Amino acid sequence: MNIKQHKKMYKAGKQWLVASLMAITAGLMMGTTVHADTTSTSQATSQVETTQVAQQPVATANTITSQAAATNTANYGNLDHYSVTTSDSAEDGHLFVSGWHATDASQTEPYHYYLIYDNTTNKEINRQKATSPVVNRDDVQRAYPNVANSLHSGFSEKLYIPYAVVANGDRVSVISRYSDDSIKGEGNHTDYWFGPLSFDQGNHGHLDSVKVNNGQITVAGWNATNKNFKRPNHFIIAYDATQHREIARKIANTVIRNDVANAYPTITDAIESGFSTSFDLNPAFLTDEIQFVSRWSASTNGDQDYVDYWFAPQRLFNNEGNYGSLDAYRLSDSKAPDYARFVISGWHAASASMVETHPFIIVFDRTLNKEIGRSPINAPVTRNDVAKAYPNVYGSERSGFELNIDIPYSSFGHQISVVARYSDDAVNGEGNHTDYWFAPMTFDMGNYAHLDQATTTNGQINVQGWHATNQVAQGGVRRYHTIIAYDVTKGREIDRQSVDLDDIYHGTIRNDVARVYPHVFNADISGFNVNFNLAPEFAHDQIRFISRWSATADANENFVDYWFAPQTFSYQSPNTQPTQPQQPTNNQSIEGVGEGHGHLDKWTVFSSNGQANRAAINVQGWRVSQFANSKSYHDLIVWDNSTNREWSHVTISNPMMDFNTIQRPDIAAIYGNQYPAALNSGFNTSIILGDGFPWGHDFSLIVRYATDENGSNPSDLTFHLGRINSNMITDNF
Span of the secretion signal (predicted)? Predict the structure, then answer.
C-alpha cells in the first residue's frame, strides 16, 4: 500500500471544486506498454524523418478518492486499457475504456455511469450510463473479497469523445460512478477517477515498399496522426528532391492497418492509416532522388490547410545500370541468297528502358566498321534470374531476347559484335538510345569434320559423320553435300553419294555439332549417313572418304572438300538385302530437333478394344523453349511425313485454359536459369488417331508454341517417330 496526496474534485451545487487530501491507494495497478515497428515525430507541417520507435507506455490510471472514500467506504479501481477510434459521428470519436471499479456503495447506488472530464478546460464533456454487460473479475474478488461488487466490478465500455479534444491533446479523466439516480447519475454517488489520460500528438509513418511493375510505381506504407482532424483528404505526393519540385500527386487508396492501430491506440484513425498508391513512370523517377510525402488536407486538391509526413528521399533505380549477357548464338542456313541466319539469345537490362522503351538487336562488323543487321525485339523474354540479380534495374524481369537476324556471308572471317539497344525511336531504333556491346566474335573459316563410323555389312560400307565449314559461303553458296569414296591405292574414285539435306531422320541434323561450332553456319545440317557398295576389287585397298560441299548438284564445280584418313575394308559377300539405318520404334526414347531442347521419353500406340480405327498415341516427355511464356498457344501435332501434312493434334494450353502441363524439377535443375518455364516443361497426353489413319506412313511428333490458335509464328521441336504400323497397337501404356 502507498500513501499518496491527490487532488480530489467534488461538486458543490453546479461548480466543480478541488481539494487536497491524503489517501491510501491500493489495487491492481496494471499499465499497458505498446511497441511499434517504426515511427517518427515532428511538428505537423515540418519534414519528418523515419526512425526506429521508442516504447510508448499507455498512462496507467490514477486513483482519485471520492466522497465515499472519505467516509471509509471501500472504493477501488484500475483502468487497464484505453484507446480511441473513429465513429459514425462527424464530431465525436470512440473512447474505449476497460478496467474495474469495486465499491460497497454499489449496493445502495446501483446505477453505473461514466463521465469524461476535460482537465484542460475544467469541464465535463460527456456522461453515459453503462450499457455494456458487466465483466466478471475473479482477480479483483481475490484481492478484495470483502468488497460487495468485487466479482462483478469489471467493465469494457465505448464512450463518445469529441475529436477536437483528442486532436488538441487535452488531458482528460474518466470517472466511474455508482449513483442512486437512474436518470442523470446525480443524487448520492460514489466516484472513482482514472487519469488524466493523454492522446498521441505525434506524426508517425513508415514507407513499407516501393515497387515497379507494368509501367507504374506503387508506393505502400502508413501515416497516422491526430493532426488530421478536419483534414479528411489523404494524398500521396511524389517529390523530386534533386530538382526541388513536385512530380505528381494521387489520392491515397486506404488500406486497413490493424498493426498500426495496435501500436498507436490513442490515434483515432490509426487503423485506416495505410495506403497503397500507384504513379505512372516519369523520367525523373529514373535519374533523381525521390521523396514521397503523405499529406492530410482540408481541401480537395490538397493545397490548403494540411499536415505532411515526409519520407526519407531515395534513389529508386540504379540509373547507371546497364547490364547484359549473350547466353548463346549460332549460325544456320537462312535460305536467302548470300545470307546466313544468325540466331542469338541473351538479356539486356538497363534502367534507361523506362524512357527508351523500344529494344533492338544490332549486328556490327568491326572489321568493316559498319552495321550489317538490325532487328527489333518484338517479344521480350521473362528473365526471373536477371530480376533477382538486378532488382533495382528497371525492366530486368523482361530483359531477355531470342531472335534471328540474317547477316551476309561476306562477314564470315570478320570480327563481329552484337549490340543490344534501348531506344525512344520505335521505328528505326535511333534517337536517344542506350547500348550494350557484347564481346566480339569471329565466324572463322575453319574446315571441321569427323568420320563417326565406316562399317561393312552385307557387301556395303555404311559411312556416317559430319562436315561443317563457313568456306561453303565463299565465291557463291555451296548448298550441295556429297560424300565421295576414293581408292588411294588405284588412284581413282569409286563412287559418290548425295546427302539429302531434308532427310532429318538419317543423321543430317546435327545439333551436337552446332553446339560445339555455333559460329559455323552449316553445322546444324552437317551430318551424313550414306552407303557404298563394296566390290571385291576394292577390298584391302586404301580408301579415303571425302565430304564435299559444292555449288552444283554433280559436285564437280566450286567446292570445298574434307578428306578423311584412309582405311582398308575386307570384302563381305552380301547374303541379305542392304539395310537402311534403323528408324525409331514404339516406346523408343527420342531427342527433339529444332528450337530449344526436348526429349520424348516414351510413346505408345494403344487402343482400349484393340481395334485399329479406335487407336490413339500417348506421348510423354518435355520441351524447354525461350518462347514458352511469350507464345501462349501450346500444341502437340502428329505430322504425316509421307504426305507432308498434319494428321491430328491436341492443345496442351492456351490463354483460355491451362491443363496437361507436367512439372519437371529435373529439367528445371538443368535448364532453369536459361529457360524460365523449365519447371512446367513436361507433357503426358494422348492424341486420337481416328478412322482412316494411314498405317505404315512415316510420322513425327511436333511440339509447338505459337502466338494464336492458327499456329502463327510457330516455334517447333520435332521428334521423329518413324513408320507407325497397326501391329504396334497395345491395350495399355
Answer: 1-36
Name the average pLDDT for the chain: 82
Distance between CA 438 and CA 348 in Å, rounded? 10
Give DSSP secondary structure letters for 565-610.
PPB--------SPPPPPPPP-TT--EE-EESSEEEEEEEEEE-TTS
pLDDT in tens, 102-134: 999 999 999 999 999 999 999 999 999 999 999
SS3 category, 167: helix
Q: 656 or 313: which carries more pLDDT confidence? A: 313
Q: CA angle, 190 as apex, 184 and 192 as ends, to 5°?
A: 105
Positive or negative, the CA dihedral 332, 333, 339, 345 is negative
For residue 430, give the DSSP letter.
-
Give the number of other Cβ atoms within 10 Å of residue 591's Cβ. Answer: 14
Over the stretch 324-382, which tens digit does the pLDDT of each residue have?
999 988 887 777 778 888 989 999 999 888 878 899 999 999 999 999 999 999 989 99
Backbone angles phi, psi at 201, to 5 degrees: -110, 10
**Buried b / exposed e across 652-664, counting CB within 10 Å, b at 16+?**
bbeeeeeebbbeb
Lowest-pLDDT choice from 272-286, 487-501, 650-664:
650-664
Query: C-alpha distances in angstroms, 459 versus 529, 537, 579, 669?
Result: 16, 12, 11, 47
CA-to-CA distance for 257 and 205, rounded, in angstroms?
A: 12
Phi first, then psi, for residue 106 (nearest 5°) are: -65, -15
d(CA 526, CA 134): 92
| Closest listed residue to residue 330, CA positions, set 592, 599, 593, 516 | 516
Report the DSSP pairing between strands 274-280 and 172-179. unpaired
DSSP annotation of 567: B
Rounded distance between C-alpha atoms, residue 505 and residue 572, angstroms: 27
Matching residue, cell 543487321: 373
Q: Tell me which residue of 227, 236, 173, 176 sits closest to 203, measured CA to CA.
A: 227
Name the grid cell of 524: 546444324
Which amino acid appears at position 257 of this protein? R
CA–CA dist 182, 189 (Å, integer): 11
Residue 304: all three cell numbers together: 490548403
Share of the chain above pLDDT 90, in %: 44
DSSP 8-state code for residue 211: E
Angle 493-498-503 from CA coordinates, rounded to 5°: 155
Judge whether 350 and 325 are in contact, CB under 8 Å.
Answer: no
Question: Is-contact 223 295, C-beta < 8 A?
Answer: no
Any idea what DSSP says for residue 429? Answer: S
Quote the cell numbers at residue 167: 486532436
Tally DSSP H helices, then E strands, for the chain: 8, 48
Judge contact between 442 and 366, C-beta under 8 A.
Answer: no
Dist CA 511 CA 517 (whole Å): 10
With b for 16 or more beta-carbon neighbours within 10 A and e for fewer, the 711-723 pattern comes to beebbbbbbbbbe
Closest C-alpha to 50, from 227, 310, 372, 361: 310
The pLDDT, as a whole number, for residue 315 is: 82
Measure the CA angle with vertex 210, ends 204 and 216; round to 5°.
130
Residue found under cell 566498321:
369
The answer to whether the beta carbons of residues 623 and 664 sit under 8 Å apart is: no
Check: CB of residue 362 under 8 Å from CB of residue 429. yes
Grid coordinates representing 482 are: 556429297
CB of 493 within 8 A of CB of 486?
A: yes
Three-state secondary structure of 442-500: ECCCCEEEEEEEEEEECCEEEEEEEEEEHHHHCCCCCCEEEEEEEECCCCEEEEEEECC
Most confident among 13-17, 151-155, 411-415, 502-506 (mean pLDDT): 151-155
For residue 179, how many other CB atoms are within 10 A of its CB?
A: 22
Global pTM? 0.48
User: In terms of Cα–Cα distance, which of 664, 704, 717 is closest to 509?
Assistant: 717
